[in-house]
Specification:
Blueprint: E1 7-11, E2 14-17, H1 18-26, H2 37-59, H3 66-89, H4 96-105, H5 107-110, E3 114-123, H6 126-137, H7 142-149, E4 160-165, H8 171-178, E5 189-191, E6 194-205, H9 215-238
Antiparallel strand pairs: 1-2, 3-4, 3-6, 5-6
């Protein structure tokens, strides 16, 4: 096996090792075609050429050009934002006990033992929602009514919400679901979004999966939720010092 620490070239005192060339190869499009000794030599030559270009750029003070400085600031700002996010998130490092506790407290969502297949129509006004409900009672197809009246993005697909677990919808919507039998349509259900006509298409009850079966999912969900909490906590802490103007 080739020694990746082997010195392949020097340019003005800058050493280029085999592992530098391999890293370069992995970061260029189509780099895999250079995975042979001849390819390594070609890439080494290119790295030498780029070092010569870099030396000349410094010699001619291109790094002080306004255009370069503006680009450099953009790159630096983006890197710093990513690093700042990393610093916020680094404290989220759950133990096995943390994950088990989170699973026990959120089992219905992580491993739902009850799922619903449903559609809805969302309307701003109660009187209008009652009118639409009567139209459906009198024979208007629910999907057509959704396309015609619903203000929710799901209108385009006839109001379909697909299949989802218990607990992901707002409480009022969930209560409305639980009051229905399969095939029934609710009278208007009020939530923070407006008035819903809910059509319950199916309900399935399954045994919840054990923690060990969904441990990876629990870990990813825990990270997502806790990182979001840390992010919002940090924003809440520092936003008071920011001058923000919004024009939308």
């Amino acid at each position: 096996m080739e020694n990746n620490n082997k010195l392949l070239a020097e340019v003005n005192g800058k050493k280029i090792y085999r592992n530098d060339v391999i890293a370069f190869m992995q970061n260029i499009e189509g780099g895999a075609r250079f995975q042979n000794e001849e390819g390594i030599k070609v890439l080494t030559d290119e790295m030498v050429n780029q070092e010569i270009i870099l030396t000349d750029a410094y010699k001619n003070k291109l790094d002080t050009d306004d255009e370069f400085q503006n680009e450099l600031k953009l790159v630096k700002d983006n890197m710093l934002k990513n690093y700042a996010m990393h610093k916020i998130f680094e404290s989220v490092n759950p133990t096995e006990d943390d994950l088990r506790t989170y699973y026990d407290e959120n089992k219905e969502v992580i491993s739902p033992n009850k799922t619903y297949t449903a559609s809805h129509i969302l309307i701003d006004d109660l009187d209008k929602a009652n009118e639409v409900y009567k139209e459906i009672e009198n024979g208007l197809d629910f999907k057509e009514a959704a396309k015609k009246y619903s203000k929710d993005p799901s209108a385009a697909s006839g109001g379909s919400l697909g299949t989802f677990p218990k607990g992901v919808m707002v409480k009022e919507f969930q209560d409305g679901l639980d009051s229905l039998k399969i095939g029934e349509i609710s009278k208007p259900v009020k939530s923070q979004f407006g008035y819903h006509l809910i059509y319950l298409e199916d309900v399935k009850n399954e045994e919840a999966k054990a923690f060990d079966e969904v441990k990876d999912q629990v870990y990813q969900t825990y990270l997502m939720v806790k990182r979001q909490e840390k992010y919002l906590e940090k924003l809440n802490e520092i936003s008071k010092d920011a001058e923000v103007k919004k024009y939308y």
